[in-house]
Amino acid sequence: MSIRAIFEYLMGDRRAILAIASDRKALVVGALLVLSAALARNYDRVWLIHEPWRLLGPFVASLLISVPLFLTIYGFARLKGMEPVGMVRAYGTFLALYWMTAPLAWLYGVPYERFLDPLDAVSKNLWMLALVSVWRVALMVRVVSVIFGMKVRVAIPLVMLVADAAALTALWFIPLPVVGMMGGVSPEQSAVAMTALLVRAWGILSLPVWIILVIWFASNSEDVPEWQVPAEPEPRSAGRGAIVFAGLALLAWASLLPITQPEQLRAHRVDLAYVEGGPTAALALMSGHDRRDFPPGWVAPPRRFPGEPTTDEVFDMLEALAEQPHSDWVEDVYADRFINRLRYDWFEWPAELLDQHAERLAAILPRLRRGPEMVRELDRMAREWGNQSIEQRLEGEPLSESRREALKTFNRLAHTEDESNP
Fold first, then answer.
1. Residue 307 region, left (φ>0) first, then alpha (ψ -120 to 50), else beta?
2. Cα–Cα dist 415/221, whole Å
3. Could you give the C-alpha distances from 97 to 28, 48, 190, in angstroms and in order?
4. Are residues 242 and 285 in the same domain?
5. Backbone angles phi, psi at 181, to 5 degrees
6. What is the count of structural domains for the chain?
7. Is 183 helix (H, G, I), strand (E, B) or coil?
8. What per-residue confidence (pLDDT) applies to 181?
9. 94 close to 70: Cβ distance less than 8 angstroms
10. Residue where one domain finishes, among candidates 255, 279, 299
11. CA end-to-end span of the chain, whole Å?
């Protein structure tokens, strides 16, 4: 196997597929490439010392998918009359070919979060996921067609049946946000939720089609599959080049760790401080650094997925901001999150803040540099949905004394900028 064969394989070249399938070193090369793909996925997303299992995730995922895929195809081929071959050796060959698709996952390593806003970064990552998924499925269809001697029209439903079932199973177990038709879920989470909904709908609708096609080909096709990989692979010295290439790819992704992992370590320490010491400890640790010391796409605590932090969690953090010295960038992070949530949770959150939590919020915002801006956005979003503005609430239904004072505080803050800039 040569370095060229790896790239020709990714293009579905028949000779490259058979060259890799018959090379004794293919499993080693594939394993190195899978490890490099794991680094590409995670080098700037998590602190790997704390979560080393993420480097094993692609290996586990490959086994969970490749085993049922191989058994489905091998069982179909035997049912259609293929001569038996050693299943362990055949699966080893199939696994090596599956692992050799790992370079496609290098596309996940593009750090969109560093030069795009969060929503655009999520969108680009989802498009990359779609591209890699379609490419990998198409490549496996080609692999099955070549090494089992099947026609492509037979290989497609076999591969898609397993891929469809795997996707639906993953979506069943992975927690995902619910699509918020009236707000309540951030745009980033909404994009993920909508993508998951479309994949699930496609999977449910297409699964019966693949089942019917597999049954039809099993019952009606007269073509007899034939294992195409030689029984005794020839030793190939050229495999060293492929091993060196895979090793260099692994080192290339690993070379980024000294740049990205210190950011992840600081983010992990803030998360740990929040869990163990609460908002005050987390804010103190954050204020000891600049914003650029943390990952670009990092969301400071509190956070939840799926969903958003509770109102009490948000208020606890804002109270800590009001009560202790902090860097301006830290307040900007939380003020922006507060304002953004008002905008995408416009159906419920503004009314909840003004009706249920007015007193507590009014005790916090006057002590924050960006408090007036936060109040103005709260007032604007309350009007946007047709609720009463702060002034209308003051002039409307009877209010308790404490809530009236809170609304007066909001009203004063809302006009602070106008008074300072006549």
1. left
2. 78
3. 11, 27, 35
4. no
5. -70, -25
6. 2
7. strand
8. 45
9. yes
10. 255
11. 76
User: What is the DSSP annotation of 80-112?
Assistant: TTPPP--HHHHHHHHHHHHHTTGGGGGGGG--G
pLDDT in tens, 59-99: 999 999 999 999 999 999 999 999 988 899 999 999 999 99
Does 17 share its domain with 100?
A: yes
Element (H, E) at 377: helix 371-384
**Distance between CA 139 and CA 127 in Å, rounded?**
18
What angle, rounded to 10 degrees, do the helices at 239-254 and 26-42 form?
Answer: 10
Q: Which two tokens stand for residue 323?
A: 């009560």
What's the sign of the alpha-carbon dihedral 46, 47, 48, 53? negative
Cα 309 from Cα 340, distance rounded (Å)? 13
CA distances from 87 to 63, 70, 96, 110, 181 (A): 15, 10, 14, 38, 50
SS3 for 181? strand
Domain shared by 236 and 188, yes or no: yes
pLDDT tens, residue by residue, 286-307: 999 999 999 998 999 999 888 8
Contact 412, 377 (CB under 8 A): no
Residues 149/226, Cβ–Cβ less than 8 Å? yes
Tokens 């915002």 identify what position? 365
> Which domain range does residue 365 map to?
262-420
If DSSP codes are grouped into helix, strand and coil, which group holds residue 128? helix
Tell me the pTM: 0.88
- Residues in the chain, pLDDT under 50: 181-182, 237-238, 418-422
| Cα atoms found within 13 Å of the Cα of residue 29, Cβ hemisphere only | 27
Amino acid making up residue 49: I
Phi, psi of 62 (to 5 degrees): -65, -35
Are 168 and 203 in contact by the 8 Å Cβ rule? The answer is: yes
